[in-house]
Amino acid sequence: MVGEQIRAGAERAAEANGATLTFEDDRCDAEGGAAAAQRLVEAKVDVVIGFVCTEAIEAAMPLFKDASIPVITIGVRTDSLTDRREKTGWPVFRLAPRGDSESIAVAAILTRLWKDELFAVVDDGTIYGRELAEGFRAAAEQAGLKPVFVDTFRPQLENQVALVGRLRKAGATHVFVGGDGEDIAVMSRDAASLGAGITFAGGETLRVADRTVLPEAGTLMIAPPEWTSVAARDVISAFEADKQTTDGYTLPAYAAVEIASAAASAAASDGKPLVDALAGRDFDTVLGKLRFDAKGDLTENPFRLFRFDGTTFVPLETE
Predict the structure, then answer these.
(1) pLDDT category of residue 256 using cuts at 50, 70 and 90
(2) Could you count the other beta carbons within 10 Å of the beta carbon of residue 287?
């Protein structure tokens, strides 16, 4: 499924940009990544796009480095992939958010938004939930803000009435939840039914549409944006006209081909290696204007603030 999404996006972008594609399957493991890399090196490709699995790309990068072939990954979030660039010399560029992007955005947005609010921080005890909640709590305390309530809750319960009761007793009017979107939705529902007057906020797990309970209107989400630019709508319309979807990695793969094509043209024009043309340059893509920093990460954190209006999450300005 993921491979089909990448292929669909890349093929359509290649048609629009006059690019030639070669496909290999990395099988999402180290052995497959190394084997795919070897075949692509032998094929003498100019640039590689794809990779959503850490094990596969880490096994592949030494071969691409030796062959001076840059890689644009559309799905690997592991921080160390680019953090170790000075040590590894890997020519890797990341279209996906970094692993710490969500935590950084939560901390920055909510400490600003809730500076005058009585807020609480709870998590579900998972590594993901605890790290997200602790990141916000630590940032808040650094900013001189202290939560009125901090706790770990039991996830996947049919109701969270007891937790809501403790939050209300503590005086919390706003609650950040490090955990699953379904749990956040249950909390917001129970708080509304009890008239607790609590606004809940969570991370990108709230975007999952396939849930039995919807969050209450007013629930906040920090997540990457959906693609609504004119360019994105045009591409999505073209897919829909052919009865194809743009789920998952389809549009990121499209953007990666756009970037690779533009960088290749710039490198040829400037007489410089393609890897040099990928860094420190703005690229107009279906996902908007993008730029990579010296490590290969996006220069701008893609996570934004959204509010649920009862039907969908609507983007909000936070300044």
Answers:
(1) very high
(2) 24
